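Observation: inputs received (chain + beta-D-glucopyranose).
Thought: call the complex predictor directly.
Action: predict_structure
Action Input:
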Amino acid sequence: MRKFLTRSLAVSAVALVALSTAACGDSERDASSNPSSGAAKGFAKDALIGVALPSKTSENWVLAGDLFTNGLKDAGFKSDVQYAGASTTVADQQSQITAMITKGAKVIVIGATDAAQLGTQVKAAKDAGAKVIAYDRLITGTADLDYYVAFDNFKVGQLQGQALLDGLKAKKATGPWTIELFSGSPDDNNAGVFFNGALDVLKPLIDKGELVVGSGQTDVKQTATQGWKAENAQSRMDAIINSTYAKGDKTLDGVLSPNDTLARAIITSVKAAGKPVPVVTGQDSEVESVKSIMAGEQYSTINKDTRKLVAETIKMVQKLQAGDEPEINDTKSYNNQAKIVPSYLLPPVIVTKANAAEAYANDPKLSPLTK
Ligand code: BGC
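Observation:
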């Protein structure tokens, strides 16, 4: 997969996103042998742990805040869990992290609002002797970042691309199929990684003409959804329907949507235009999307169990507290343009109506929706 990324850069505007996205490099460098990634001597068992989360653009962030507050408390730590506001997200998050450093936090867990705008704060944390863990979203352009814990984002994108294809084939056995592409917010490093993962699967078929992007909008600048906001995806879908599908000579068969919030906005737009609902992908297993999948509307989502991601992060904090090296299972994929960040990656799971009951069997909130 990593070779595809490198190759595709030269040949396709579709893959331009890779230029602005830090992930999945070819380097063989082993970050685990880098002394700067080693643990400090440990710290007090009831130390303050800071958690700086982005604004609540999807359910996973809402869940994460509560899980961190409770999980850190259960583990004996004091915690300071903050969300960036809805509009001045970058400045909010920067000052929240600075305040955490001032209060003496020993570890700061960050779900970045803007991957590229936190270098100063991450350096200040390091200078103060705190460790920084990037949570779910990578922080770019700083060698001072200690660890990354996330679901494998490139794999998320690949699963979304494959789900789109499976859904299209289930609807109409042979192509060409007409699709549209949406990506997430350009300030979130994940957005480009998801898109590249999806294109890893879709681009060969776009090149062969089996998949046709009806609007011709394949460049990430065109597909992006600023701020991961539903209204931005909805208005872009409205505009595309008007420009490309209004006359009725083309049928929209499928839409690559990077997450559930945007998937529902896209479906709302299509329905408002009186068009049949296409195959639409998603991510996050949000309640309304799981309901939509069970009702046969949205085609797929991704299960990235937030409970597991928070638990892994708290495990890392506990290791650091004891002065031990946290468990790392990936030392090559996430190059943040300053270093390869030692990572712990969890496997994402694709969910469609067919496997929803099984996928959510251990989730008391979602499992009843699949019955
Ligand atoms: C997360 C997704 C989420 C999106 C918008 C991404 O960084 O990985 O799970 O849907 O942000 O909140």
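Thought: report the result.
Final Answer: Residues 1-21, 23-40 have pLDDT under 50 and may be disordered. The longest strand covers residues 48-53.
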